[in-house]
Structures are given as structure tokens and as C-alpha cells.
């Protein structure tokens, strides 16, 4: 038997910690299953969109590019210059978060066409899905349900980091379109 008692957590402390974690998880699950969860989710979505709109103004000014957040529940389009991302809230049930997902889809680069026009790819460049979760009494987003928890403000920041990276990246080479 190891003699590292000073380093190891005492059995009583461990039991208290695990009981507290179990109580916290039970409270979290109870809140996630509450009958008003659909209304709560809509409030969290509204907070995310508000964060995106605030970030849009800040980033657009700093980047010297037109920036906007357009749309309404369940679909919004976030623009920075000629680059866009869609944010879509899919919740098939009004009283549950079962199968609910927030999809963030980055749409392709600005392709230069003859005569100076631009064209955007019809397929998303990438898609990330998030699930709504409750962590320490705060609503957070988790990528694919088990990623790092992101409050709405941090998710808005993440979305705009990607937009800025794509807005200031050169268009991919060797893109050919036939007309």
C-alpha cells in the first residue's frame, strides 16, 4: 500500500467532493430537463446574437470592413467584408434540448470572377456544431457536446476570429469555374 497520504486526498474529502459533484450534476440535469427550457434556450440564443452584433460593430470598425449580423431565429448570417458565416439554431422540441444544435457554418472565400465580380462557394467551408449546456449555473456552448465550455461572449469572439482570419487571407489558388 502506498505511503503518499500527504499527497493523496483523504477518503472523507474524496467522498465529500464526489457527493458534491453528484449533487451539482443532478441539479444541472434537472435544469436541462425543466419544462421552460425552450424559453431559456431562446434567451441564451438572444444573448449570443447580441454578443455577435456588439462584436460585429467593434471588428468592422477595427478591420475597416462592413460588418453585420442579419436574420432572425433560427437563422442569422454574420458578414465581415465579403466573407460570411451562418449561425443556425436547430431545436426540434420546444420543451427539451434533446437533439438541439447550434450550427456555425463558414462559407467559402471570395472568388474573383471575370470583370471584377465575386462569387462565394455554394458549400460551407466548414461547419461546427455546439450543444447548450449548464456549467456552474452559467449557460455555455460545447463543441459537439463535449468540447471546452464557451459562454456566448467567447463563442462570438471565436466566430469573429475565424471571420477575420478568412477576410484577410488571400483567395485560394487554382480555383477554376466554368460558365
Question: Please, could you describe this protein's structure?
Answer:
The chain is an alpha+beta fold. The chain has one domain. It contains 3 helices and 9 strands. The strands form 2 sheets. The protein has a 7-stranded antiparallel β-sheet with strand order 1-2-3-4-7-8-9. β5 and β6 form a beta hairpin. α2 runs parallel beside α3.
Question: What's the short version?
Answer:
With about 180 residues, the chain is an alpha+beta fold.
* Shape estimate: elongated
The biggest sheet, with number of strands, parallel, antiparallel or mixed sense and barrel status, is: 7 strands, antiparallel
End-to-end separation in angstroms reads: 76 Å
Radius of gyration: 22 Å
Mean pLDDT: 82
Q: How many separate helices?
A: 3
Order of helices and strands: HHEEEEEEEEEH
Q: pLDDT below 50 for ≥5 consecutive residues: which ranges?
A: 110-116
Strand order of the largest sheet: 1-2-3-4-7-8-9
Strand share of the residues?
25-35%
How many extended strands? 9
Q: Quaternary arrangement of the chains shown?
A: single chain
What number of domains?
Answer: 1
Provide the helix percentage. Answer: 25-40%
